[in-house]
Design a protein that fits this description.
The chain is of the alpha+beta class and 296 residues long. It contains 7 helices and 17 strands. The strands form 4 sheets. Strands 3, 4, 5, 6, 7, 8 and 17 form a 7-stranded mixed beta sheet that branches. A 6-stranded mixed beta sheet has the order 11-12-13-14-15-16, with helices on one face. A hairpin with a 5-residue loop joins strand 15 and strand 16. The N terminus is likely disordered.
């Protein structure tokens, strides 16, 4: 169990973790994704090993890294978790490379339902967490884009956090990024990093991708990682790309463009404590008037 320390700003500040690590080297892999599932997975495995060689301790993949993104593809590419071929490949890669792998997302089949699901594997290949996308991407922007995940997918119903090497990490998928309350609950559970595999499109991407990532980092005073597929202009759904890592001050520490690449950055966890002690909004909230609660 983690050792804890009491915040010096105010005794009412419920305890925060005394991190066993001062930092974490994270790799955000902006993969090119095509119609060949086996090729997509093999490419992801290769990038996991390459990231490890460069010193990564945690490797994160993008949304739908093993399949094209689109409601017409989910059923065809779906597999069970954790017994499917993609999960076996991720587990093996994590164990062989000795890194934690946040496996982007894959279409998950569970009974007669399909989910957009993120799996997490520790450095021994053990399944640490599974997050099913809670907020389905149903939008209609006239003359721009109409998309309804709910025509095919079911929504998840759980907030998902996990601990790796003493660091609490929260998960969201793409459209989940828009929901402040979800991020708030993960921060309340002690998270210092939120990771969002996501494939914002060419309409919402340039307007909101970085903006929402910075907003979540600032309002929850933690690190935010955004991991997107690379852009393929010939695809049915075109990803904006621009994977990024954002610090608790809201500064974009590093960001990719739209082509396949890997972002390798050191996360300084002491900045979380720095921001929260200097701007102590977590103890200044008027919970006598309002609050964010988990209902189930």
């Amino acid at each position: 169990m983690l050792e804890t320390t009491t915040d010096a700003v105010h005794p009412r500040f419920t305890k925060k973790p005394a991190y066993p690590l001062s930092g974490l080297k994270i790799a955000l892999v902006q993969l090119a994704v095509g119609p060949d599932k086996a090729k997509n997975v093999a490419h992801a495995v290769q990038e996991i090993h390459l990231a490890k060689e460069k010193g990564a301790q945690l490797v994160a993949l993008p949304e739908c890294f093993n399949s094209p993104y689109g409601t017409q593809f989910f059923n065809e590419y779906a597999e069970e978790v954790p017994s499917g071929s993609t999960c076996h490949a991720l587990s093996k890669a994590a164990a062989e490379a000795g890194v934690c792998v946040i496996g982007g997302t894959l279409p998950e089949r569970c009974g007669n339902k399909l989910y957009n699901t993120c799996t997490v594997w520790d450095n021994t290949g053990k399944l640490l967490a599974r997050h099913r996308k809670m907020h389905l991407f149903d939008i209609d922007i006239p003359n721009k884009i109409t998309f309804k995940e709910s025509e095919v997918l079911s929504a998840g119903d759980q907030i998902t956090t996990f601990e790796y090497q003493g660091i609490k990490i929260g998960l969201g998928i793409c459209y989940d990024l828009r929901f402040f309350e979800m991020a708030r609950l993960m921060a309340d559970q002690g998270c210092s990093l939120l990771v969002y595999p996501g494939a914002f499109n060419m309409t919402t991407g340039p307007r909101h991708w970085e903006l929402l990532g910075r907003a979540r980092a600032v309002d929850q005073q933690l690190w935010v990682a955004l991991v997107a597929p690379a852009r393929d202009t010939s695809a049915h759904y075109v990803s904006w790309g621009h994977s990024a890592l954002i610090d608790p001050w809201g500064a974009v520490r590093a960001q990719l463009a739209d082509q396949p690449d890997t972002l390798l950055v050191d996360i300084d966890l002491s900045i979380v404590d720095e921001v929260r002690s200097q701007i102590p909004i977590r103890v200044q909230r008027r919970t006598d008037i309002y609050d964010t609660i988990k209902k189930s």
